[in-house]
Amino acid sequence: MLVENPKKQALEIIKRLSVIYPEAKTALNFTTPFEMLVATILSAQSTDKMINKITPALFKKYPGVQAFADASLAELEQDIKSSGFFHNKALNIIGAARAVVSRFGGDVPRNMADMLTLPGVGRKTANVVLHNAFGLVEGIAVDTHVKRLAGRLGLSTNTDPVKIEQDLMALIPRSEWGNFSYYLIDHGRAVCDAKKPRCPECVLNDICPSAFLFIKVK
């Protein structure tokens, strides 16, 4: 359900969560823009903790875009197997590397339109890479946590990530687009759990339209 004044709601959420999570940022480890891209592709349907276990050896074995472009598909699949969906991820990583080398001179593009031409890259991945690798924002990354909390907090009634992103972009100042995802991600991990949200201890429970329902059910 949408709240009466979604824009006011969004600003209040930012005000409160920015205090609790002042250093909210990606948990993925990377040193270059392409490493950020690889890590983000790998993180789909997995956890950042798992990906951070994989990437040190992976980035040592494939030191740079060209190394990934030249990688053996079968070998890369084995290298990333524990991330899940490793066949498609390996295809996308190699495809993205080859595209970056052949079309962008070996440098990850710095805009949404070009990012979206890379294999395995949708708006969420593009937003994550642009924000974390370059400090650029062209949208708001919507992952499972952002999708869940945007609905619970009354900021969007949509279920499609692209539509949720559009709703959030209309409510949130552009200066906060990059940070907002991480406020919700950190809060989703710490308090607003998918199955058992800890509403009584939540700093947003007095403005969250879902809190009463969860507390009442409990």
Task: Estimate nothing, just give the exact number of structural domains.
Answer: 2
CATH class of the largest domain: Mainly Alpha
Q: What is the average of the pLDDT values?
A: 96
What is the distance, rounded to the nearest whole angstrom, between the alpha carbons of the first and last residues?
A: 20 Å
Q: What can be said about the biggest beta sheet?
A: none
Low-confidence stretches: none
The CATH homologous superfamily of the largest domain: Hypothetical protein, domain 2
Assembly classification: single chain
Number of strands: 0
Please report the number of helical segments: 12
* Cα shape: elongated
InterPro entries: DNA_glycosylase, Endonuclease-III-like_CS2, Endonuclease3_FeS-loop_motif, Endouclease-III_FeS-bd_BS, HhH-GPD_domain, HhH_base_excis_C, HhH_motif, Nth
EC number: 4.2.99.18
Binding site for [4Fe-4S] cluster: 192, 199, 202, 208
Domain HhH-GPD: 42-190
